[in-house]
Amino acid sequence: MTNSVYHVPVLFKESIDALNIPKSGIVVDVTFGGGGHSREILNRLGKKGILISFDQDDDALENRIDDSRFVLVNANFRFLINFMKFYDLMEADAILADLGVSSHQFDTGDRGFSIREEGKLDMRMNKNAALSAHKVINQYSEPELFRIFNAYADLQNTKKVVSIILQARSKHKIDTTKELVDLLSPLVPPQKRHQFLAQVFQAIRIEVNDEMGALMDMLEQSAKVLKKGGRLVVISYHSIEDRLVKNFIRSGSFDGEFDKDMFGKVTKPFEAINNKPLIPTDEELERNPRSRSAKLRIAEKI
Questions:
Q1: Which CATH class is domain 133-208?
Q2: Strands of 295-301's sheet in order across
Q3: pLDDT per position as a tens digit, 93-147
Q4: What are phi and psi of 31, to 5 degrees?
Q5: Does 3-103+211-301 carry CATH code 3.40.50.150?
Q6: CA-CA distance, 107 to 102, in Å (whole number)?
Q7: Which of 46, 155, 218, 285 lies at a CB distance of 3.0 to 4.6 Å from 23, suitable for a disulfide?
Q8: Do 278 and 15 form a contact (C-beta atoms < 8 A)?
Q9: Domain residue limits, the chain
Q10: Are strands 26-29 and 270-272 parallel, antiparallel or unpaired?
């Protein structure tokens, strides 16, 4: 498995340039994946530079880089500060987060992320995690299913989606991605099928991996890990992620409300470098259609 097959990095040059990497810097790549970003970061670091990368997916370990300046942590990025303290690498110069699912995870049917490839209902980025898509679909209560589809998918027919799942599983378990796809496909016209199913799968995946909780944990910790003037660079792929990132950079909170000290001074940890997110060029969209929803936000620690 090569990193180019594993994942095609989106907004690659833009995100690396935004890190503003010093030669002897400490850089963090919290979403290692195929190692594309990490390899380029190492190219820009000097002999005294250090890169620490995170990935909870065991498959990503196959892409490990043989470099004395490189540390790969097989853990969720929500534990960022724990490992930075462990390796005595606080006061980092830059943090990069390329959120979402890698091409490898989408294209490997048995991981359960794909609406095209048949596989078990899984969707765990950490294969050792207790919660899976199978458990969500077959064991979540009606209110719990409503919650995840309302919170994590922009569906017009959530009630019908939940009703069909409940009816089907009352007869037999829903075991595979194909079963779920076949069950839900009749709910929308063929021309809207892909978008609809992608939103359904997105909602389940976010719930299984607690993606929003992990993202908020990482963002809050990034403010403690970065030195003054350090860069936070985040690529998000759907509006829920982007809203959290935008609000945190803008105000230091996830609801967009400004935190103030006892004197009324705003206490946000970051200043936005780009108020309007960078998006892929037409050329990149043609080369990599999966980049179409990507948004790149850059912030600097105050």
A1: mainly alpha
A2: 70-73, 50-54, 26-29, 92-98, 226-236, 295-301, 270-272
A3: 999 999 977 655 555 656 777 887 789 999 999 989 999 999 999 999 999 999 9
A4: -135, 75
A5: yes
A6: 9
A7: 46
A8: no
A9: 3-103+211-301, 133-208
A10: unpaired
